[in-house]
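Hi R.,

Here's the chain you asked about this morning:
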Amino acid sequence: MQGFGTIINSILTLGLAMIVGFVCIKTGYITDEQKNGLSKIIVKVTLPLLIISSLTQLEFDHEKLVNSIYVLVISAIVVLLLFGIGSVTAKIGRMEKRMGAMHRCMMTFGNVVFMAFPLIQALYGAEGLLYATIYELANDLCLWTIGVYQVTGISKEKSSFFSNLKRLLNPGTIAFAVAFILMAVGFKFDGIIGEVIEGIGGTTTYLSMLFIGGTLARVDFKHIYKRVGLFVLTLLKMVIVPVILMFILKLFNIDETAAAVIILQAAMPVSTVLVVLGMEYGGDVDYCAEGVFISHIAGLALIPLVYYIMGLV
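And here is the predicted structure, written out as tokens:
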């Protein structure tokens, strides 16, 4: 495992970039429309190129194939475990329908792309990004099935199972499939084409943080300190569950990098996508948006803490 200084530098870098995005939106220097356009550039252009440029740098072997299968299976189990914990805590808290549905999703689905990919790539390089992308596949499969089912249960409007599954066919998953095939056959992008792909993909880190910062700028946090439940959710999701996972995964013969990526992905802040789903289907948007804000701000300290504990276990 790399030195603790690496993650501190990475978190500080990401945090400062988030502040820039926050200030730009708060001051009106960048509009919400421009911020949303930035999200599309990340999802449709820079992120797919980051995945392709990173994975094609790897030397594919039997060990990575086996590890990838392990990561996919374990990631799906972890996501379902988080959903189970969210269901239990929502019941204990006696949450009403709108809040309970959002709470279960918030506990389950983290910011496994915008926040996690840049951080994991900085810590574990291309191999770490490979496993992070596989975790995202498991996360998205559950998000667009179980997650959407939970949120649509709030209103009368329903999304069909197959229409939600179609969401899995997106630029990120297509890029992963292409990159995995290229990696398997040993193809690499050289020369100016390789430089362009790597250069554009490399902008994902800062663009993602600008987007997250801009998203947080729209949260009304005047009364956020009263949301005790959200602080409990953040601590449970981002520290307690990841620490438990450390001990569980330690019992199995899993590659150290693969295990570390799964743990860090599980420890990510609440997904910003849930705010959009909540708005569309009548969920408790305020509760969700405040959870996104608290977990991302707390994550600047909690993610390094989890990484530090991981080195001790």
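One quick note: Residues 54 and 144 are 26 Å apart (CA to CA).

Cheers,
M.
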